[in-house]
Every structure is written in C-alpha cells, then in structure tokens.
Amino acid sequence: MGEIGWNGLLVLVCVFLANLSAVTQGKTVKYQTFEEDAPGTVIGNLAKDISSTPSSSSGGSRTNFRMMKQFNSSFIRLRESDGQLTIGERIDRERICKHTLHCLIAFDVVSFSKEQFKLIHVEVEVKDINDNSPEFPRKESSLEISENTAVGTRIPLDFAVDEDVGANYIQSYQISVNSHFSIDVLSRADGVKYAELVLMKELDRETQATYALELVAMDGGNPSRTGTTRINIKVKDYNDNSPVFDRNSFSVDLPEDAPVGSLLLDLNAEDPDEGLNGEVVYGFGNQVTPEIRQLFRVDRKTGRLTLESPIDFESKNTYEFDVQATDLGPNPSPAICKIVVQVQDVNDNAPEISITPMTSITAGIAYITEAAARESFVALVSTSDRDSGANGQVHCTLYGHDHFRLQQAYEDSFMIVSTSPLDREKIPEYNLTVVAEDLGSPPFRTITQYTIRLTDENDNAPVFSKPVYEVAVVENNAPGAYITTVVARDMDMGSNGKVSYKLADTYFMGSPISTFVSLDPASGSLYALRSFNYEVMKQLELRITASDGGSPPLSGSANVYVRIVDQNDNAPVITQPALNNGSAEVLLPRDAPTGYVITRVEARDADEGVNSDLTYGLATGEPSVFSVNKATGEIYLNQVLSHDVDETLSVTVTVSDNGRPALTSTATLHFLIIAGSPPSDRTVYQAGGGYEVHAQWDLSVVIIVVLAGSCTLLLLAIILIATTCNRRKRDKGGEDSDSYGEKGTLERGRNHVGDNPLLPLHGAGGGAGFDGHSYSSQPGGFTSAHPGGSDMCSASEDGSEVPCVYDSDNNSKLRGNKHEGYSTLPGYGNGKEAVRPITIWKGNSYTTISARDPAFSGKDSGKGDSDFNDSDSDVSGDTGLKKDGAVVPPMGGQNGLWACTSECKVLGHSDRCWSPSAVRANAAPSPAPTLSSFNSLSKTASLPRDPHRRDNYYQAHIPKTVGLQSVYEKVLHREYDYVLVTPPRPVRVQEISDVTIPVYTPTPTHCPNNDV
Known about the structure:
It is a single-pass type I membrane protein. By secondary structure, the protein is mainly β. It has 7 domains: about 5-125, Immunoglobulin-like; about 130-235, Sandwich (Immunoglobulin-like), CATH 2.60.40; about 240-345, Sandwich (Immunoglobulin-like), CATH 2.60.40.60; about 350-455, Sandwich (Immunoglobulin-like), CATH 2.60.40; about 465-565, Immunoglobulin-like (Sandwich), CATH 2.60.40; about 575-710, Immunoglobulin-like (Sandwich); about 740-1010, no CATH class.
C-alpha cells in the first residue's frame, strides 16, 4: 500500500473517531454488467444511487468513498471522490463463475464525511454473453452396429459441452440427412441436453456396410453458435442373440460419504446363446468420460458396479453413464444399460440433546413420586442442530415405556410428562430413550438414554406369604422350641417396606396367647414358651399382625394354627379288673369248657391315634391253658382244666400301645379255681366267631372239634344241672348249722344308722369277690324283694328296726345278729378264707354281698423309702392301711384321687381332690352284680362322685415328681370306701376330716369244709 493509501486510511480513522456521535447506516446497492466489457466502462455512481451529492453539506464537509477490501480491485475500480464504479479489466464469466447460473462480484464500500459514516454493500452481477461455441470431446468417432439391430434401437452419442450458461447453452442437436438414422434430443436431470442415435430402418451390411454422419450441436445465443463431430458407422454381421439387461436403466442414490469399494449395482445381462456367443462381459460404453472411469468401476465378468474413488456432493451431485454387456461371439451386439448416480448430501452435524429434570439427585436421573397424577411434568428436553434447512430441523421421539410421552413445549423443546398412574412396586425405574432426528436425507440421529426413578410412597400393606399357616408341634417340646417362621412382604422400600411382627391380643384357655408362644418382631420366628400337652390342648390358634414403618403404618394379618402332635408319652392304664398292687384275683370254675371267657382285661391310654391302639398279650403263665384276644383283651381257656391242677393259676397280662417306641403295662391275674361250672349265659369263645385264636388248626380239625365240643357241651349241661341241684340240697343243710361267728356286724351297722350312714366295707379291694342280692326300695318303707318277705325284722335292743337277710334257698328270714351274710359262690367257707355277708344300700335298693377279709402283705407298702416301681411297692392305695392301730379298708383300684383335674399335674392337689361330694337322693338304681361279668365281682363301693367330672387315672408304674408323689400318697391314705346301710338322706355330707370312721375288728369264724 502506498503512502497515499496509508494517509487516506489515517484520515478515515480520524474522521471516524471525531464523529462517534454520527449515525452509522448500512445499504446494499446492486449493479449489472456484461462479461467481456471494455475496461473503463462505467458500472454506476454510488453518490447518486444513495442520494448523496458530492458538494459539501450544510456544515461544509465533503463525502468520500473507499473500498473495504482490495482483492477485486482488478475487476472493479472505485473513484473515491464521487463513488463512480468502472471496469478495471476484462471479465471472463466462465473463469470466475464456472457452471453457475448467477455470477456475482460483491464488495463493501465506506462512505464517510465529518457528519456521517456509511457502509455500502455493492453486488455486481456479471451477465453471460454467447462467447463460447459447443464442443464435442472428439472430432470423429466410430460405431459398430450389427446388421440385425432392431429398428428403434437407441445408440448414445457423445454430447457437446458449452461453457456458457442459460440460453447461451446447447439447446439442440442435428444430424446429417440419411435414410436409416435419426437423433432424439433428451435432457438430463441437471438440464443438460444430449442426443441419441435412433435406428429408423433395418440395416443390410451387404447393401451398405458403412455410414458417415455429421452431428451438429447448437446453443441458444443470438447469433447461435454450433459445434460438429463426425460419426463413422460400420455395419457388422451378427450372431443370433444379444445380451439383455434386467432393466434398461437404473438410478442409484449414493451418499457422498460412501466408502471406496461400496457396491452400487449388481448388473446382470443374460444371453441365451451358447459358448462364446452366450458368455457376457461388462464394461463402460465407448462414450463414458475419463472422470466416470476414475470414480466408478465395472467388473468385467460379474457386472458389479462399485465406487472406485470418493465423491463430493459439493463438486457434482449427478453422474450419468452407460454400461454395456457384450457376448464373446462373432459380431456381438452390445446391450446398453443407462446408470444414473444421484449423490446424496450428508448431514455433517448431528442434533444435540439436553435434558433438564424437574427434580434430580443424581446426574442423568430424574425423580418423581409414584403418587404423581397424570400429565405431571418430569423433565425438559431441548434439542439443537447446527445444520440449516431440513438438515437442521429436529424431530424428537421418546421410547421406552408408554407411561411417559413427549409434549411440545415450544420450538425445539419438549416436555416429558406422565400418561398414567405410576406404581413403584411394579416398575421402580424407567429407562427411556430420547431420539433426536433431523429432517435431512438421510436423517442424522442422536440417541440419549435417560432414567426416571420413582420415589416410594407407603401405598402397600405387608402381605403374608400364606393367609393361613398350619404347623405341627410334637407335644412335650422343650420351652423355647422353634415352631415356624411367618413371612410377610411389603413391596414398598425403606422404612415403608420394613416389616415388624406382633401377636394379636387374644386369649386361649383363659390365658393370654403371649403366655403360650413368643414372636420375634423382626424375623417373624415363632417359639413355644411352654411345653405343650396333647391331652390338654389339641390345637393352638393365634393371629399375627405385620406392620410396616410408614406414616401412617399399614398392616396385614395371618392366622397360625399350631397343631399339637400326639406323642406316645402315656402308657396304657389297666382299668378292669381292678388291680391291687399290680395284681387281681379272678374266679375260674373248674368245669369251665374250652373257649370259656374267664375275664376281659380293659385298659385305656390317654394318647390318641395309633398311640392309643392297644394290643393285649400274655407275658408269663400257661400258654397251653390260657389265651388272650389281642384286640379285645378277653382271656379264655384253651383247654378244660384237669382235676389235679393247682387251685390258683397265675398269668401276666401285657397291654401295649402301638406307639414308637411302644409303652407297655403289665398285670398279674391270679385265677382262683372254684368248684362247679360257669353259668350257661357266660360267653364261650368260639373259633371263627370274630375272636383271635392263637392255635391255628386245619379246617377239618376245626369242624371235628366244633362237633365234638357241641356234643360235650350238651352232655356237660345235663351233668351241670344235675350236679347243681344236688349241691344246693347239700349246701342247704350246711348253711343252717354253720355260722361265721362274726357277731354284732349288723348291730353295729344298726347303731350307726342314725348317726353315720357310712360303714366300712372290708374286702372292697380289686381282688375281693362277692355275690349280691338286691332289694328294691318303695316309698314309705323297705319292701323285701324276696317273695313272702316282710319289711323289717323285729326291733333291736335299742328299739330300732334291723334289716333282715333272706336265705335264697328256703326263703327263711335271717336276723342280722344270727346270720351276718351268706354266699352262693362255691369254694367259700371251706376253711381257707372267711366270708362275711354285708347288707348295703346301693342306689335305690338294698344289696347283700359276701366278701373276704383283706389280705395283708408283709412286704414294703410302697409308702416309705422302697424303690419306686418295685413290684412290692404300691402308690395307688389299693392295699389295706392301718390307722390308729386298726385295719382300714383300701381305696378303690380305679382312681384314688377321683376329684382331681388336669391342673393337679402342674399346680398340685387342692382340697377338692379328696373332699367327699353330697349324696344324691334320687340316684338311679344299680343292677345287682352277677357272675356273668368280672367287673361286678370286683367292683368296690366308694363315695358317690359327680357324674360330670372327668376321671383322671394316675398310673402306679409311671414315674411322678417327688412333690406330686408325696401329695398323691398323703391324699391316698385319707380316702376310704364306705357302704350305705340305710337309704341316703338329702343332707350335706360332712367334710372328710370330720367323718368318724368305725373300725371293724374281725372275730374268729368257723368255716365249714365243703368238699368239691
């Protein structure tokens, strides 16, 4: 830059600084000029065009002009004094604006004065003139056309190029006059016109082998310019078939960033000829330019069109060329396929996504409460794209779940909102995908993953895994034993999902349920606080509540049924016959037949199920003589007793339950052999009658035995009747002359009638045998049940009436002081045992019984320090006791503590365990005992009991605690058996401590010997 230029710039800066307050304005001025105009040609005057005069303003200042850039000063010149624009040098439009329809030269000019500073944008459009003629790439070209080419066949020709644009570009083609060919002018997608040679008439090589044609290209200028080329056509002989493409033309869209080697087309041409005439090769047409050959490649054998070099959309967006398929036969006729490659612009910039959540704790995660309503705002999505036009327009889409959607907020911004109620327990977290896609072709996408996390609300109550829990616990468990674990789940999280367990406040058997079991509030584990007893409690029902830690808390409940499983912890207790020190005596007629049921052993087991199923057996004894029914406990004879057998036979009976391990109780039965035969109504064990028989016989043997037995029984019955009649006549005389010498029994009983209606009954133990006669009671007095009897005998010494005893044989009335009792049982009165008759009040009638004196054992009574469960020990109170030097009758063998309850096993015995109950005045009459049942022979008279009270049996052979043992024995010694000699009176019974117990002292008796 010269000195003047620098000085001018300095002046401009000074003027600018001096006029900072002046208004700065900008304006665009457009001019037109033609290319090739001579230098110095005036284009325009800026001063005039912007309405500014070169004279000074009112202030006397002058306006000057100066270009901002100097790069185009060679084409356009500016006069600074008045802003006149002129051409600096000749302008060649084709050089500066090649292939551009509008050619603009733009620059900026500064207009400045003391008062004003202006920036003027100048655009000079260079108009095209027809200064270029069309040109063909070759001045001469050759074509070979087979003579069998079909009429209408099109043959591409070289197209001309004109550097001018617009109307000055090529507008038409012409061909020299001929009879076989014509041209058809077509336009490409970019508007360029080209010509195709069309065969109008069949060729005949023999008539004319060559054709010379001239092709002329003309532009639209005025005057028009033309360009020519020479076409030499050679007619060739042909083979019969030419290759045929699937299609005559193909259009391919190719993105500008396609990698080199990309497959554009897989061309295929078929030639039905064989051999070389059918073998097709591919290649570019003869008119394809070197540029096309450089950018694309056609595989000669396969016809695959691939990209050979990178392409640029900004350089050229359309490529059009021919690919021909030729067979290898003689005179091949190529098939031409036109290929158009459209270069697609590529989106250079991808959309950008920005997501701003409403509530955020962690980056990239939005939080929303699960209680949010529909259409709740979650986050704002903003998009942007630096591209322009369709490539810069962004479409946003949300993927992942239909519980959220995008809602247009404003341009390029969207809101993520909820579309339905949310539930964290079902879906705690949503992983959404935001896709931003511009409208370019092809579109450019940006994908962003986004997470929406739901915050918890306490909207779920704890739910148990089962509404009802059923568990089983074996009885006799240790306190603290684990029972089960209940599990409740709360789908909430945190404190809302933390579950605690609690027992519902209920009562069971009168006690809070918390005294039976305990519950871990954290784990839900259930434990037993006490040892369960199946015999007391079959099932425990409780309710458990599970609560969460929410505010307010929610809760759920479940029922737990604890079933107590029976354990074989109770051994069988033999109830019949009544045992005395583990043994009992049973009468057995010597003449009893085979199968005669002697007695029935009855037992009970406090357990249930298989633990209470009892099996009877014989442990010791004479298995050839006795057998037992395992199911019923009936003991019967296996054979008829011989006359030389001992008078007493003993067997040990076992009663076992079916528990595992099985518990067993034993009892020793002493069978006292008595003379005579059993009554005819007594049960005789029959084989095959439903009883179990130990001996297994053949069927023939059984039939013989049955027949023989029937005859024998018939004979025995006749003999038995005759013998009984004779024996009764013989015994009648003996009974009139013999007495037992026991005087004062009835007198003593009579003396106590008014004071104490209770008399001691000796021999009332389980081993006592007796015979009884009943006397019914009538209102107003006692009426003898014996025919011809009177109400009472004569008055006694004190004036009271004495009950009479009747002889069953001679119907004679026996006074109480003469005959103390009588017995119809044979074998008694033979000098071995004393038999005493006693008349008692039983139910609503008098009953006369005969009983033996109690037998005493010289061994340890079991009340001292003897070993427990010793065979001589007796803690059941079945033996006789001594009180104040007198013999006290033993207590009944079934139950000593008849008033005890189940609480006694745990808490100990109370007073009611041994207190007597009031006697009911209208008690139901009891049937008289007979020989047909052992129970009647061994039944003892005891204090009246409450029929609604449950009996509790304590086993003598089962170990007890020391405390319970002492209480048991203490009470056992204080309870006695009494018999009523007069009808009971409806008065309150005295406490046991106030009852006066008469003591019976046996007197020497004379027992006549009865030989059997």
